[in-house]
Every structure is written in structure tokens, then in C-alpha cells.
Amino acid sequence: MKRGLFRPVRGFQAMVALLTLFIVYYTYWALHLTPEYDRGFYLDDTEFVKAATYDPEMRSTLSKWRREHINQVPGNDIEDPSLTKAIEDIRSQIVAYDEDADLWDCDPTLKLPLAVAIPEYFTNQNSVKPPVQPFDARLTLAVYYNHLYRLLEKGQPLRVPFHWSDWVDLSKVHKYIYDRQPSDADMCRQLFDLSGDEHKQLRFGSTVKPVEEYCRENPNSLTGFEVFAASGRHTADGKDLSGKLFLHSTAAPTPHRIVFLTNSHIDVPLEVEVENDINDIEYSLMHSQILEAGLNDTSIYPNRSHVNVLESYRRLASKSQTNPKTSATNYMWLEESDFDVNPKAALESIDNSLPWESAYADAIDFSLSVDKPPKYFNEANILKSVTDYAFGDHYDWRFFKGIITSDIRKSASLHRLIKNYLNFARQTELRTWIAHGSLLAWYWNGIAFPWDQDVDVQMPIADLHSMCRRYNQSVVVENVGDNKGNFDGFGRYFLDCGSSITHRNKGNGLNGIDARFIDVDSGQYVDITGLAVSEDKMPADLYQYADSEQRRMSSFDRNKAMTVYNCRNDHFVMLHELSPLVPAVIENQVGYIPHDVVQPLLQEYGLKSVTNVVHHNYRYSPELRIWELKSLLRDYLKNPEKWLDDHPIKLGPDWDTVNASRNINFDDDHAWDNDFDGLTNIDVAQLLKHPSVFRKQYKSRWFTRYNQGEVDRVINFRYAEQLMAVHELIKSEPALGSGLEPDYSMTQLIKDGDDYAERVNQMVGLAAAMG
Questions:
Q1: Half-sphere exposure of 240 (CA within 13 A, CB side)
Q2: What is the pLDDT of residues 355-390, one digit of tens each?
Q3: What was the pLDDT predicted at 658?
Q4: Which of 47, 89, 176, 396 has the smallest CB count inside 10 Å?
Q5: Domain named LicD/FKTN/FKRP nucleotidyltransferase: which ranges (predicted)?
Q6: What rounded mean pLDDT belongs to the chain?
């Protein structure tokens, strides 16, 4: 039996077993569960469920479970007007107690430091001009926005200079510039050599790369030496420094283009060519003259001492027109041809006058020339003797600044990654969808899990080729302003495609990821994998649907005939499970999900993944619609009196009351599951007094509410309703597209203070001392 003709099940036995499970479950539920809310009940996982395809009874069961355990929890209504007022009262008080500025983005009265001082050496030729200047995203973006505005006004080509020091904080390199050592100092070995006996314990369990394979003397460099390749395993500090030295050197490639994103009401990016192909400091803002060239234009620099980055963005955005193709969301249909690309044919249309097209052709030639391609992406591999060394594998070595231990920082970084990747894909009309753990997170509340380390997306091989041809080695810049004209973010991202795109089988396993969308502020990334027909063998649960003729075919021909596609990590999927892609809202961005969401989740993670409210040290709270630490919830539930005393926010007698302590063993997940009757509105208000809970719930509150309805529509294939809901949301919700988590650069400015002028003066003083 062909699976494409009979898609509801994968085998008669699977259907019988599935229906049996449903009957047993329904009978047990009807006879044994009381009318009270049974919080902990979840569906049992079985092996055959992983092999089951679409079954209406299973979806009905899952929908019923979601209604009773997620969407309609008794005794609580988080949309209740009185609770909404209490939450606003909490907000006004909690931001006043926020000494660490962790909740700055929840304070609408806060005046953001959007204007930045223009260093005097740009306006006064007699001022000392240092060889390098401090990094500030506001200055870089404002100057580039203003320069592009002038080019558009004059009708000139959009070409700009580029040096990485204007886009990434490379301040760790400055000490080696202002205190440059003589050539015989051998700085490479001083900084990175771990071969000596004194480092024997540090090296234990790790293979250390010889220093000369990644660092060398270079008298023409400002530092006198340079890092030209990844260092292999090293200390976290060593990885951080080596990445910064690499980006400052001429060894680092410059991007082919800079893609400036706009807000979702405009949805048209501004694509700009980089004019230099060498990462030379002469092309930085300090030396390229693009700031000085516009200073006499009072329409963009009314004040020669400061420039406001949001005003500069708004001015440039005013030159853009709305793109009706991307702003009107609809299905995205995928065809068999999207998963089978002839790369040699693509070379026939190459325009070698465009550097990105020429680079794409070179990449195709290289990929076709090697049988066993070497590993392309290098992570921040940390010595195995270091605690939590494995976390370095979730960062690109070039942009690594250390393992992020703060939950606030990590969740904000991942949120901004997926936000800007989806924005980029939508504005450039690339067909892509969230996958794996990111898709599972969307199922629960539309937001990345707090324990996630990266983001996973997929695309057809045709779109992977299109993306890499047009945008490989591009810097993508977040829209500074949102749909309402308010500040959104300073994010900058680097899109990097691997060097073996024509290889579509697993091969040596070194290149399972085809491309990455990398946060240049942290090194965290979105993993991008292309799906294609390949010669890899499909799993047995798919092979059983091959007919006699297909079984005699080669693996490649059989996969093609059955429309079975895979990534290079051998995750297989059938075309009908993907197409048509369905619009959905992910992390407050319009993106796409597969046509069948339940099927890939059940296959990859099992049934408990969509029904178990406990994972790692977290518990899902349907009342708050967030995953929260079990320990935090336990602290409140076990001793609400102490919680009330520990949190000084006052809401009045109707809210500042203490629910009786539940006589439940909250240290036992099973007891918690079966005996706890849920949170009341008073519980919710009390929990929101905790800054961590408030931060996660407040700005996402409307979005997670929307997500509940969206998931129910999608898992039941009510796609006409889903299309209508997304269309209405685009038209009516001005907050759609804005960041739900705080921007990293703005957070640093607010926490540390706006000291850019002071940092510039320190540089000028060092330069004057050097003579």
C-alpha cells in the first residue's frame, strides 16, 4: 500500500493498536477520573505512536486534553479585567523596585538612550584621532542609515565600506594595539600556547591544536600578530580573544552584503553591497569618511554633536514602500522539484559581476570537487577539563563572548534570533519553517523553551540554494523601529552557508548543518538544514509503504518516487506532511509551520512531549502560559505566607490574601500532578510579584493567549480559520512583530550607563600618549 494514497495510518496494525489505546484511555477516564481538574494526567507514550500518522481519534483526544488541561483551567481566568488591573499595579511597582534594570522594557515611561555622542575627531580636524574607536551599535547604525538615505536621495548605487570593528565589540583587541609588543615577543604563544607541562591538567581529555595552525605574526597588523583560523579546543577566555582577533584582522572575510530589515508593516529589506573585499581598518567608520561626508547636511545631522539612531531609521524607512507579497500571508505550496536541484544547471545563469554570485559559483565548484568535505562550521570548542565545556558547541567561535549563564540573557538572545530570522526569511521571500525542538516549543506557548540552547529551522533544497546564492556571508540588521515607531532592537546577524551544499547524504557526518544565522553579539545561532531527495535509506516505517516496483529501485529513485526527503542528519519527512506550509505566529513573528504538526512531533519526541507538563527542572503553568522553575512554584505553594512577606508589592486586601497551604508533597511530581487543583487568580497575582515570573509573562501575555487558539486550529486541520486569524492579527495588532524580550545592546546601555563619550576620551588619551 502506498503511503501517499492512504495517509491516515502507517500500517493496519498501527491503526488497531492506536484505536485500542484510545478506547482503553477513554474508558479509564470515564470510570476513574473525577469531575475535578486532574492537573497531572498526561497521555502514555508507546512505541507504535511514534510510527503512527494522522488519526482523527488521536487528534480528538489530544484536543480534548488541551482544552481541559491547558486552555480552560478551572478556577482561573487570566483575562479577567480585575486581574488585568492587578497586573498593571504590579508592573508600576515592580519596575520601581528593579534596581538591576532587568525589567527596563516593561517601563513605558523610561526614556531610552537612543542618541549617541559623535566623537569630536569627526567634527574637528585638530582633534587627536585614535587608530580605533570604541564600539557602539547606535553610532554604527545611525551613520549607515543616514549614509544610505543620502545615497537614495542622490540616486546613487547602494555600496558601503565595511570593517568588523563597527559591527562587533572588539574592545578586547584594543590593549594589544595601544600596548603593541615587539615582534620577538611571540604574542601568539604568550596568549594561546597550552602545550607546556604547566597546562597538562588543563589539557586532560582534549586534543590541543598547535598555535602556528591558527595564529601568526603580522607586522602590518595593528597588533603585530593575527588569528587566521579556529583555535580548536581552548579555554573560554582563549576562544573569546581568538575570535575577536580574527574579526579585527584582514584574515576575516568581509560580508558580500548588508541586509537592513524593516518592520512588518513595510516588510521590504534594504539590500546593500559591501564595496571592499578585504577587512582592512581603512574601511571602518574611523577612516572611511562616510560620517564626515554627511555632517554638513543639517536634514540628517541637525546636531553635529549627537545623532539619534531611531530618528535615522525612521527617516530611511520613510523611503520604503509596503510589499504586498509578504504582508498578505497565505499558504506556501511546495513541489517535488523544490527538493531536487541540479547545481550544475544553476551555474549556467551565474552573473560573475556580482560578488555573491561569483562566490556561490566557487562554492558549487568546490562542493562538486570533493568526495568527503571537511567540517565547515567551527564552534567554540572548550577544553573538556572545564565545567560545562559542552555548552560551547552551541556558539560560533568567531562571535563567542563566553557561555551565557543568565536565563534572562539566554532567552532574550534566542528570542531575537528566531524573530529576526523569520523576519529576514519573510522579507526575502524564502520558504522556511521551524522544526524539531523549536516546533515543539511553539506547540506549548509559541516561545522557545527556557532550557533550549539554539533554534532549528528547515527549508527545501531549492530555497537553500536561493538563500546561499543571494545572501551567503551577509550581515542582517534588525529593524531599529517597530510598527508603532518605537524602539525595537539593535541586533546584527551573520548568515553563513556551508561549503558542501551539493552533498545531500549524511556522508562523514561532519556537515549536518547547511547554514547558520548567527548572533554577532553572542555567537548563538539558528541551525538551518535543507531537505532534499538523497541516496540515504529511508527508515523502515516509511519503507513499508513502498510497492514492489519501488522496492527494486535504488534508494535515490525510491525516495524520489515516494516524495520522501531528508536533511543531512537523516531526519526524513514526506511531502504531504509539509505542504502546504501554514502561516503561524512564532515568537510574535509571522512565520510558517508544516502542514502536519502533530506527526513530526510524535515521531521525533513521542506522545509525552505534547502532554507532559514537567520537563527538566521546569513545569508548565497553563494559568501563566509559561514554563517556570519547579523550585519557584514550590516555594510559593508550600509557604504562601512567607512569599507574601518576601515580596513588598502591595495590591490591597482583595489580592494580598493568603490561600491556605495545599496539603500536597510538592517534592513529588506524581503527587503534584494528581492532587494539585491549579492556580487561582490570587495565586497568579502573587507569583507575578516575582521579577522573573513577571518578566516572562507580562509582555508575552497577549501572544501566548493567541497561541492557544492557534495550536488548536492547526492540530485539527482547521486551516481556513487559521488563515483568517493570521490575516486579522496582521491587520489589527500593532504589537505583532515587536520583540517580546529586551534587546541586548540596549540592556547593556541601561545597566552600565551610557558612557560612550567617556570611552572615546580614554581612547583619545591613549592615542595622544602613543604620540
A1: 14
A2: 999 999 999 999 999 999 999 999 999 999 999 999
A3: 78
A4: 47
A5: 426-548
A6: 89
**Confidence label for 673 from pLDDT (cuts 50, 70 and 90):** confident
Q: Which helix (H) or strand (E) holds 584?
A: strand 582-586
Q: What region, left, alpha or beta, does residue 124 occupy, with left being phi > 0 and alpha being psi -120 to 50 degrees?
A: beta
The pLDDT assigned to 74 comes to 57
Closest CA to 529 of 369, 339, 259, 334: 339
Name the CA radius of gyration of the chain, rounded.
Answer: 28
Domain ranges of the chain: 168-253+376-402, 330-375+431-472+492-608
**What does DSSP say about strands 270-274 and 159-160: parallel, antiparallel, or unpaired?**
parallel
The position carrying cell 595622544 is 768
Q: What is the model's pLDDT at position 5?
A: 30
Asked whether the predicted pLDDT for residue 68 surpasses 90, the reply is no
465 within 8 A of 346, measured Cβ to Cβ: yes
* Angle, vertex CA 137, rays to CA 135 and CA 139, nearest 5: 85
Give me the pLDDT at residue 361, please. 93
Provide the β-strand partners of residue 534: none
Closest CA to 439 of 235, 707, 167: 707
Which of 110-124, 230-244, 460-474, 636-650 shows the lowest mean pLDDT across its residues?
636-650
CA distances in angstroms from 563 to 459, 504, 580, listed in the order given: 15, 15, 14
| Continuous segment of H or E residues that includes residue 525 | strand 525-531
**Full 3-state SS string of 9-48:** CCCHHHHHHHHHHHHHHHHHHHHHCCCCCCCCCCCCCCHH
Cis peptide before 374 (omega within 30 of 0): no
Residue type, 468: C
Three-state secondary structure call for residue 466: helix
Closest to 443 measured CA to CA, from 613, 601, 607: 601
CA–CA distances in Å: residue 142 to residues 180, 316, 375, 376, 692: 32, 10, 38, 34, 33
- Helix, strand, or coil (residue 735): coil
Phi-psi region of 155 (alpha: psi -120 to 50; beta: other; left: phi over 0): left
Instruction: Indicate yes or no: pTM above 0.85.
Output: yes
Task: Return the closest-CA partner of residue 710 out of 629, 621, 625, 628.
Answer: 625
Q: Where does residue 737 fall: left (phi above 0), alpha (psi -120 to 50 degrees), or beta otherwise?
A: left
Cα distances (angstroms) measured from residue 333 to each of 428, 597, 726: 17, 16, 17
The separation between the first and the last C-alpha atoms of the chain, rounded to the nearest angstrom, is 82
Which of 42, 47, 58, 65 minimizes the C-alpha distance to 614? 42
* Extended beta strands in 198-328, E state: 215-217, 225-227, 257-260, 270-274, 306-308
Q: Name the residue among 747, 693, 754 with its Cα closest to residue 100.
A: 747
What is the DSSP track for 279-291? --GGGSHHHH-TT
Q: What is the pLDDT of residue 507?
A: 86
The SS3 call for residue 117 is: strand
pLDDT digits (tens, 9 = 90+) for 170-217: 999 999 999 999 987 899 999 999 999 999 999 999 999 999 999 999
Q: Per-residue confidence at 59, pLDDT binned at 50, 70, 90?
A: confident
Q: What per-residue string of b and e applies to 679-710 under the rule 16 or more CB within 10 Å gives b?
A: bebbbbbbbbbbbebbbbbbbbbebbbbbbeb
- Unique residue bearing C-alpha cell 520604503: 320
Tell me the pairing of strands 270-274 and 525-531: unpaired
Q: What length does the chain have?
A: 771
**Phi first, then psi: what are they for 136, rounded to 5°?**
-150, 120
pLDDT for residue 289 is more than 70: yes
